[in-house]
Amino acid sequence: DPEQGGVQVQVDWGDGSGLSAWSSLTPSGTPIAFTHVYRSPGAWPLRALARDAAGMLSTWTTIQTVTVTGSAIVEFRTRPYLQNVRPDGITIIRRKFAVRLPLPMA
User: Are the C-beta atoms of 5 and 53 separated by less than 8 Å?
Assistant: First the structure.
């Protein structure tokens, strides 16, 4: 910031997950830390946008390209009773009853 006022930064992670929230207003030139979890391997352009205390915006600047390697981590976002999945069906356990539903054949 030429006036040496505070700035805020917003990050575009490059992986389609959306933008970060704006950082808090920080003195110009002070490092700002962000964290992000990439859900799949790839090369992702990391971009940043700055906004000064008066609301003036910079242009998007590509900071670097983040390269993520390795296998994606599997994360279950279902209730525990829905996590018993097999190639030939899924077992749903609710209360004292168990129901086995066949999967449609491909």
Answer: yes
Order of all β-strands in the sheet with 89-94: 84-86, 89-94, 97-102
Q: Token pair of 24, please?
A: 């808090």
DSSP 3-state of 12: strand
**Closest to 40 in 3D by CA, of 18, 16, 11:** 16
Amino acid at 24: S
Q: What is the pTM of this model?
A: 0.64
Enter the DSSP assignment of 87: T
Amino acid at 66: V
Query: What does each of the 106 residues of the chain score in pLDDT, given as a tens digit?
Result: 566 779 999 999 999 999 999 999 999 888 899 999 888 889 999 999 999 999 999 999 999 999 988 876 666 566 655 555 566 665 555 444 444 555 555 5
Residues 6+ apart with CB under 8 A from 18: none
39 neighbors 52 (Cβ within 8 angstroms): no
